[in-house]
Amino acid sequence: MTPEQFQDITNAARAQIEERLGIRARSFRRAVARAGRLLPAGARQAAGSLLEIEARMRNPKLAARLDPHVAQQALARFSAQMRGIEPGKRQAMDRAVFWAEIGFRAAVFLALLIGFLVWRGYL
Known about the structure:
Blueprint: H1 3-21, H2 28-35, H3 41-57, H4 60-65, H5 68-82, H6 89-120
Helix pairs in contact: 1-2, 1-3, 1-5, 3-5
């Protein structure tokens, strides 16, 4: 396996992380580190396999012995796990929780205000 072939594989995986999770990074290693627990367990394992292969690719003797099929399989496992992630779903959920919290706090404030006005005899 040539370094260029492996670079194409890691670029494809990094592009999937950017597309599905919205995490931009210059390298695949950095993208995996930034994604952290946002990656499904299977995707983290496949990414770990790709990172191990990347470490082996730095050694010319080990790089010549690497089977390209192993890296392709790791990329296929990674891609299968990443297909299950819906882009934008996490951001939409975060926005929904944010607005729900604001609504709850406003409701509590209004209930306390009305309770205070009733207690003081203004209502």
